[in-house]
Design a protein that fits this description.
The protein is mainly α. The protein is built from three helices and no strands. 0% of the residues are buried.
Length: 60
């Protein structure tokens, strides 16, 4: 997780974001498990993320 968070924030800060804006991850991370009965709903949630996030700007 440390490598993923470090690499992604480095890429964002050095190649995608303007110099005056800095991306930083919150401390820590969460892990969740799903049972078979929750799997279909979780897949639908992930499949719809692109559409859901297209409505958000993520600007402060």
């Amino acid at each position: 997780m440390k490598n993923i968070k470090g690499s992604s924030s480095h890429y964002l800060n050095n190649f995608l974001l303007p110099k005056e804006k800095k991306f930083a991850w919150q401390a820590g991370y969460g892990v969740f498990s799903l049972g078979k009965t929750q799997l279909e709903r979780a897949i639908a949630y992930v499949d719809n993320q692109k559409q859901h996030h297209s409505k958000e700007t993520f600007n402060d």
